[in-house]
Amino acid sequence: MAEFDGQAALVTGAGRGIGKAIALRLARGGADVAIADINAEWAEATAEEIRKLGRRSWAATADVGDYDQAQGLTAGTVDAFGKIDILVNNAGTSKSAPFLEITKESWLAQLNVHMSGTFYCSQAAAKDMRTRGYGRIVCISSVAGFMGPIDLAAYGAAKAGVIGLVRAMALELGDYGITANGVAPGPIDTELLRSAWPADVYAERAEHIPVRRLGKVEEIAHAVAFFASPEASYISGVIMPVDGGSVAAGAYMVEKYRRRKKAGN
Ligand SMILES: NC(=O)c1ccc[n+]([C@@H]2O[C@H](COP(=O)([O-])OP(=O)(O)OC[C@H]3O[C@@H](n4cnc5c(N)ncnc54)[C@H](O)[C@@H]3O)[C@@H](O)[C@H]2O)c1
Questions:
Q1: The domain 8-263: what is its CATH number?
Q2: pLDDT per residue as tens digits for the range 39-74
Q3: Closest CA to ligand 1's atom 23
Q4: Is there a catalytic annotation at residue 176?
Q5: Does ligand 1 lie within 6 Å of residue 42's CB atom?
Q6: Catalytic residue of the set 67, 155, 176, 202
């Protein structure tokens, strides 16, 4: 029997990138998966891949930062599969700008998708999970939520807010058999990142990571599947960096990089 057989999941922002890899991972593990994305075409394409794996899928076009649309995601998942066992809050976007140049609109938009979106979707899903005394909520934060990121103050603050929400949910939802955990990715090799960084920047950033490469979307999906599994029943309120060791190394990575350069490797 596969680990997620008979389970129903909702993954937000699953039209592409990390969210899509998470949705496919859960489906390969046996789950039926609802795909939510602001881009209808991408959502349907992921849903189609899941159906080809032999699992049920429902594609929904929604903005997680809109309260009513977020409520509709849980309602639609329950309509499609009869329940919701797993919620993965992954939808997100970032806009870089120096702190002194961040506009009010950009600040509010980033807080809205990450923090409000995570709150709206989690509250709606938890109300259904509570009725059955079982649930797994996994939120995608970022190492930018742990550190002071450059030109990403709004994004970093929003991702730190997600960490706060995970801890509060772990406390309040524990009564109902619901766990809440977070995954904090370092830089992951996605279309978004490759288009944002020129090739030389991309290569140099990899050298500042202890394992000397960027992460793969499947590596984030693996961590999410761990927290989402029935066996992770005694793990709640944990934020796990999946970052090739970057948070652990902190500023010491600067010295390691300097020594490597000096040694010519
Ligand atoms: N790629 C990285 O290096 C990295 C690192 C740390 C954290 N993250 C986080 O991982 C998550 C996924 O990032 P990604 O790299 O796969 O990005 P991506 O842009 O490839 O995918 C994000 C998906 O979310 C959807 N989306 C955006 N806003 C939405 C909204 N308001 N409602 C519903 N769907 C929405 C997009 O249409 C897209 O399909 C994000 O929360 C991001 O902040 C990414």
A1: 3.40.50.720
A2: 999 999 999 999 999 999 999 999 999 999 999 999
A3: 13
A4: no
A5: yes
A6: 155
